[in-house]
Design goal:
2 strands; 138 residues; globular; Serine Threonine Protein Phosphatase 5, Tetratricopeptide repeat; mainly alpha
């Protein structure tokens, strides 16, 4: 049975998640960002090509207000997987938080192209830009 968790509805599914990945997602669900940071550093060192791992590491840095590091890590995730909708959404949210609205709007535009009939990531970023949405682990 695949391991899955929801991040405001967006799913990260792994058929065979590593112990580090499972540990990190549990830490994030419990908002233990410093612990998750350590775990995700180990995970991304072991799984260098996992865009989801880099996205989670970027998200964790964003939550810890390490904004420049988060920006760098979202770029890494998107280099590995340019159409990663979750990375695009979260990077767009980072851009809103650091007042780079032009870049947030570019992410929104890319999501509109990836999701012509809408998708959760598109709607979440729209709401975030509009000041309606807020991110939390569920």
């Amino acid at each position: 049975m695949p391991f899955s968790f929801e991040l405001s509805g967006s799913k990260y599914d792994k058929d065979n998640p590593s112990e580090l990945y499972e540990k990190a997602t549990k830490q994030l669900k419990n908002e233990k960002y410093k612990a998750a940071l350590s775990t995700l550093k180990k995970y991304t060192k072991a799984e260098k090509d996992d865009a989801d791992g880099w996205t989670l590491l970027a998200f964790t840095n964003r939550k810890l207000q390490n904004f420049s590091k988060a920006e760098e890590l979202y770029e890494k995730a998107l280099m590995l997987e340019p159409n990663n909708k979750i990375a695009l959404e979260y990077q767009g949210e980072l851009y809103v938080e650091i007042n780079k609205m032009d870049k947030a709007m570019k992410n929104l535009s890319k999501l509109e192209k990836l999701c012509p009939n809408s998708c959760e990531e598109l709607e979440m970023l729209k709401n975030y830009i509009d000041g309606i949405g807020s991110k939390s682990w569920q």
